[in-house]
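batch_manifest entry 22 of 60
target: Guanylate cyclase domain-containing protein
source organism: Phytohabitans rumicis
requested by: lab member K.T.
priority: normal
notes from requester: please return tokens only, no post-processing; we will run our own comparison against the previous entry in this batch. if the run fails, retry once and flag.
--- input ---
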Amino acid sequence: MTWSPGGRLREERRWVSVLFADVAGFTALAARLDPEDVRALQIEYFARVSRVVHRWRGVVEKYVGDAVLAVFGAPHSDEYDAYRAVLAGLEIQRELAGLALPDGSPVRVRVGIASGEVVVDLAAVRDGGQALVCGDVVNTAARVQALAKPGSVVVTAATRRATATMVRYRELAAITPAGKPEPIDVWRADAAVPPQPDRHDAPMVGRRAELSGLAARLGEVARARTPALVSVVGPPGIGKSRLVREAARADAVARWWFARCAPAGAGPYAPLADVVRGQAGVRDGDDAPTVRHRLTEWAGALVEAGELPRVVDGLATLLGPLAAPDPHVEWACQHLLRAAARQPLVLVLEDLHHADAATVRFVRDLPAAAPRLPLTVLVTDRSELRLGETVPLRPLTNDETRRLLGRLLGRAAPTDRLLRLVGGVPGYAVELARAGVGAGGVWTEERSDEGRRRLPGPGARASEASASRHSEQIPERVRRSVSARLDQLDEPDRAVLQAAAVLGDAVRADAVSALLGADSAYARAALRRLERRGLLARRASATSQLEYGFGAGVVRQVAYARLPRAVRVDHHRAAAEWLGRGLARRRAGVDEERARHLIAASELARALHRDARPYVTAACAALAMAARCGPVSPPRTRRRWPRSTRPAGGAGASRCVPGPARPGPPPLGLRDAGDRRPATRAASAPAAGGRPGSRAAGSSPGRPRARSPAARAYA
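--- output ---
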């Protein structure tokens, strides 16, 4: 049972990070200690580890002996699950450093972290049960932990890629755990570091109006010497940081100070502390006297001598371990910024939506604390805060997206499918290009924790591009970003979006209602909410009903890939049945759509070791109807179905046999809908009431009968 009675999805495929912590030498330890001492040690150890896991918003999956298994990214993801898992691992080591055995010797712990796809039991997560996740990544985390040195945190390649700009790593020798066919690359996590800025070497397209408006506002602040707070707002990947960096490059008047808000774990005023470290030249590992010396040299050139000791005291407190907001620190920062802003100054705080409440309040009040000074506080935000004046960024138009992709790819014009995947989001375009998507929209190779895996090229069969692997063809960073957006939805709305991912680019409320068994009024309201969030967009429709499509194809890919295969089968079957009920209101392509859903259901059914023959037979009938050639019995056919959709009895297909199936969102390796494989000659089907080989009524001798677009596409 995949759906609960209340309409909630009980299981979901998700990308998570799994942390495995284990006490080194526990077996020998338990053998020489009294059982009561062992139990007391376990209770204290489990309590400390679970506190750390919960502080970093992880879920303890289970306790086994001396081991703790925790999951980050279920039931909700914030795009930084791997980062929180690594921070939790580092804190576990610090937290247990003071835990000692009865004889005074220290407790040593090994921590292993791996990231990958699992099936999550959402009901168990909500109820606090065990057996939350299932997947190879759990075994990988356990194997990595077992081979780690005591006192270390070791991560796999996928975890390291997701956190490379926020954690300092040391590469270790590859390991070959038992049961793994290839070695696994691993790294040791040493410490968290301030988030590094993203690369901004891609061309900027379609932002001329926003850039000129921002430059004009900065010039006005410098001339009038009046402070301003400006927010550049928009969804992830829309180009907020790119616009700010371009404005900085074009500004030859003001000084620019940059900081980025860390997504997790930062204390009060953390981005301000990063600004001070960068400007004063404070390095990691500097002792307290060195820090004060560097702060005195830097601040001494900005503030008056009488205020310098108090300012340095506040800045030194800011750079130390600060657990709570401090008015003295705020005064020191305000005083320093007022002094620095005697000349035009732009303070940039990126990703303010990650900042703590004290930092947000400080930023909001800063312009009022610096009157008659040319100070611009420029922040980027995902629309949650909208402080001060806002510069909203819209998706690029199709022409702008095409120009951007053309410049990124540097070869032939991008395909229509690639344009649909990007959906006007520049960040998606950049990541797809960096991942190796060319004009044909094909990946050639992908790295994972399990090693290299060849991905399908043009014309690959659907069986070679399993629907369960669709999201793996999306770059990791894009997949994390989209998954976080999906997790901002409540469960019913997310279910509607996932049903829409099955339906494709012509989503109607009555179709969603048929798939979910929901009320049509609720489906209409949910589709409108998804449109307001920018996940769906209205499409032109030949009917009186509203139709929606996905704003960006990557959203559809990720939403579909998170559905369990059994739910996909049910959804595709329900979609085909809904289309069949609508045949009285025939519209172009409805039979081909029915066949597409039935073929997808057949492939998924075979992957689940179910009988696929009913779906194959129904798909043949739908294709025959589309080709106007009447129903065809599969056992009489000359051509065969692809192996992944062939009935168990070996029956072939009709002359209306489909080309490569496209279950759900088509994998990037497959061609566009209008680019099917060439038609091949097949035996003539009998005309109504006629014999095989006889001419259809109205046809001319020696002239082939005209075929419908469906017959030409699928023949």
